[in-house]
Each structure stands twice: as structure tokens, then as C-alpha cells.
Design goal:
The chain is of the alpha+beta class. It has helices at 3-16, 31-41, 65-68, 78-83, 90-105, 201-211, 216-223, 227-241, 246-255; strands at residues 46-52, 57-61, 115-124, 130-142, 148-157, 170-173.
Length: 259
């Protein structure tokens, strides 16, 4: 597996592992809130974005990205963002994200909004030059079962402020919560889930419909089977693959070409 494929696979796994068949949630952030969040994160020469951890995509990227990285907002995808992280910084990026997710798992959901995540790494501009990016992120939306859905982030060019490549993770407490500077980082190791490429035709059909965002009732109607049958088949697929969520099941299906 190439280093880039491993990075994409590892980041996707970390960001989706926490979700348990969540409802699709869409939340628009108005301009006033965006300005308040920008003031909170104390940005300089930077751009901001809203990242959807459930769909693994940017719901919004500000126009300022073109001044920082050289890309237009509609060019900047999760895959592109990961691919332009400096090769030497990619392992630390994955370890940082893994540590952050584990930290949030130990928090009650009402405290998600009370922490800002901060660390830096190098990214390659569209012109091929590398700059050092300070990444600052806060949670703005989470599901009823406690999974983070949307984050608001700011990428600031700090190349003129920092020349060393010492990378550290800080969790900044807000509203009286304690801060953790240079927080101990946990190495990421992918869970040893049971995986199988053996899906029946009916299972592949259902997986394709799930990938399209359809619920059991819609899938049953399309395939002329009952919603209960769809539910049973989905449950059986989860059991035989070891997937702990629908998102994890879809990820495994994509890896094995079942969709």
C-alpha cells in the first residue's frame, strides 16, 4: 500500500470509527457565527472551513484559501488536503488526529464545544512550495450518540513565525476548562477488524443503495423486498465483517470493490 493510500485510509478510519449509524445532519453556519468563530481562533493570514466528519468532506471552504494555498475553494477536497501534507509530517498528523478522537471520547458531549485543538504541519501550495500551517479546530455539531459531526477549522500560514519542525499537539480549554499543552500523542494502529470480500449479489445491491443514502424502506421498495428483510441483511453483513457501524461497513465494501 502506498504511503498516500495509507494516509487516506487511516484518516478516514479515525474520523468515521466513532459514528454509530447516525442520521444525516446538515447545519448551515451564518456569517455572524463565522466571524465570532474567527475571532475566537485569532486568525492571521488564513482561511477557514467546515469539515463534515460523517461524510468526510468539506461543507464549506472560505475564498481566502487561494491566497494561502493557491487553490480555489471548490478544488479543495479531503483527498487533496491529505495528499499535500508533507510526507514526513503525515505519520504525526495521523497520530495527532487519533489522539484527539480518543481525547474527545472521554469527554461528555456537552464539553465538546469547550476545547480548541491546535497543532501545525507543512502543506504544499499549488505552486509546489511548502508552507507551515497552524491548524486550529473546534466542534460545532455532534450527534445524539456523542459522535462529532461538524468541525470549524482555521488554517494559518505561520511559516514566518516558526522555522523548526518540532510538532506538538495542544488542547486549549475554553470557558474555564483546563488546557493541555504539548499533549502526549498516541500512535495510531488500525483495529484488526474481520474483513471479507465475499458479498452476495443481494448484499452488493443493498450496499449500493446504502451508499446512495437510502433508508431501509426506500431500499426495500427499490428491490421489491420488505424493510425488515433489508434490516436483517444489513445486520448479517455487519456481523460477518466485524463492522461496528454502517459507515465502517461501507468503507470495507469500498475497499473490496463491492460497491
Amino acid at each position: 500500500m502506498s504511503p498516500q493510500n495509507f494516509l487516506l485510509k487511516s484518516a478516514s478510519h479515525i474520523w468515521t470509527n466513532q459514528h454509530m449509524q447516525q442520521r444525516r445532519v446538515r447545519q448551515e453556519i451564518d456569517l455572524v457565527l463565522q466571524k465570532k468563530l474567527l475571532n475566537l481562533l485569532n486568525v492571521g493570514e488564513s482561511y477557514y472551513y467546515i469539515f463534515n466528519l460523517q461524510d468526510l468532506k468539506f461543507d464549506f471552504v472560505s475564498d481566502e484559501i487561494i491566497h494561502v494555498l493557491g487553490y480555489a475553494p471548490d478544488e479543495f477536497t479531503m483527498e487533496l488536503g491529505l495528499s499535500i501534507i508533507h510526507l514526513d509530517d503525515q505519520p504525526k498528523f495521523i497520530n495527532f488526529e487519533n489522539t484527539v478522537m480518543n481525547f474527545f471520547k472521554e469527554l461528555p458531549p456537552e464539553k465538546y464545544f469547550k476545547y480548541k485543538v491546535r497543532y501545525d504541519y507543512r502543506m504544499r501550495r499549488k505552486d509546489g512550495n511548502y508552507i507551515r500551517i497552524l491548524q486550529q479546530v473546534i466542534t460545532i455539531n455532534y450527534s445524539l450518540d456523542g459522535g462529532v459531526i461538524h468541525t470549524f477549522g482555521v488554517h494559518t500560514d505561520i511559516s514566518h513565525l516558526k522555522t523548526s519542525n518540532h510538532m506538538s499537539l495542544s488542547l486549549i480549554g475554553l470557558d474555564g476548562e483546563p488546557s493541555f499543552i504539548d499533549y502526549p500523542v498516541e500512535a495510531y494502529k488500525e483495529n484488526n477488524q474481520k474483513k471479507t470480500a465475499s458479498f452476495t449479489k443481494r448484499e452488493r445491491d443493498i450496499l449500493s443503495h446504502i451508499w446512495e443514502g437510502k433508508d431501509n424502506k426506500q431500499i426495500g421498495s427499490d428491490l421489491n423486498i420488505s424493510p425488515e428483510t433489508v434490516k436483517t441483511i444489513r445486520k448479517n453483513m455487519m456481523a460477518k465483517t466485524g463492522a461496528k457501524s454502517t459507515i465502517a461497513l461501507i468503507r470495507l465494501a469500498l475497499e473490496h470493490g463491492a460497491i
